[in-house]
Amino acid sequence: MTGTPAQRIPCGKCRQRLPPELYNPQDFSTMTACPACGALQQVYSFPALTRNLDPIRTGERIVDESEASCFNHPGKRAEKSCDQCGRFICGLCEVELEGQCLCPDCLSSGRTKGKLTSLTDERILYDNIALMLATLPILTISLTLFGAPAALYVCIRHWNTPLGLMKSRRRWRFVVAAILATLQICAWLIFFISIFKEVTDG
After folding, report:
1. pLDDT tens track, the chain, 202 positions
2. Cα angle 43, 49, 51; round to 5
3. Cα separation values, 117 from 17, 36, 112, Å
4. Could you tell me the CA-to-CA distances from 70 to 57, 88, 184 in Å, in that order?
5. Phi and psi at residue 163, in whole multiples of 5°?
6. What is the pTM of this model?
7. Are strands 100-102 and 32-33 parallel, antiparallel or unpaired?
């Protein structure tokens, strides 16, 4: 069962609603005629405009006392259980997200704790942090003793963490930070080994 489709686009001349089959022609040079007035035009729309809308689910009432009830709505029949907390929920409470069935409480807590990445509206740019830890301490050489290991740790720990809300963002900052941090650590190892040799030889 489907609901009513979204409102159609009107003709630019006669303002009559155009049928969806005239939308989004394959060839950009193709002009389509309005069925009402014959005016030539091109119509492009997002797929969601003509998609049939699913009816709003309100949850079914319990008719038999042996039926399980919804955790949030005791008078409505439970249809599923939450994949996170296991609570029984009705059709009104059910939220499908990232392949899971969630109740409103788990959806809210998952967004607050950042566990649901598809609902995240901000992200920590760990690649920038790693690059900063690997470069800024160079200004004061002694700080690289602490900055380089920290930068390397951030690179390893957060390599698979989503970089940001922009999909075009790449991991080159992680690579540069890891190389710089490794070079600095190697330089410190060489320095300490040389001091150790001087002490033992002396």
Report:
1. 333 444 578 888 888 888 878 887 777 677 888 888 988 888 877 776 666 655 556 667 776 777 888 888 888 888 888 888 888 988 888 888 777 888 888 888 776 666 666 666 567 788 888 888 888 888 778 788 889 999 999 999 888 877 765 566 788 889 999 999 999 999 999 989 998 888 887 6
2. 125
3. 39, 47, 11
4. 14, 5, 59
5. -75, -35
6. 0.41
7. unpaired
How big is the chain, counted in residues? Answer: 202
The answer for residues whose C-beta is within 8 angstroms of residue 66's C-beta and 6 or more apart is none
DSSP letters along the chain, please?
A: ---PBPPPPBPTTT-PBPPGGGBS-SSTT--EE-TTT--EE-B---GGGTSBPPPPP--PBP-STTS-B-SS-TTBB--EE-TTT--EE-TTT-EEETTEEE-HHHHHHHHHTT--GGG-S----HHHHHHHHHHGGGGSGGGHHHHHHHHHHHHHHTTTS---S-TT--SHHHHHHHHHHHHHHHHHHHHHHHHHHHHHH-
8 A C-beta contact, residue 158 and residue 123? no
The residue whose two tokens read 């296991």 is: 86
**Residue 102 · residue 84 · CB < 8 Å:** yes
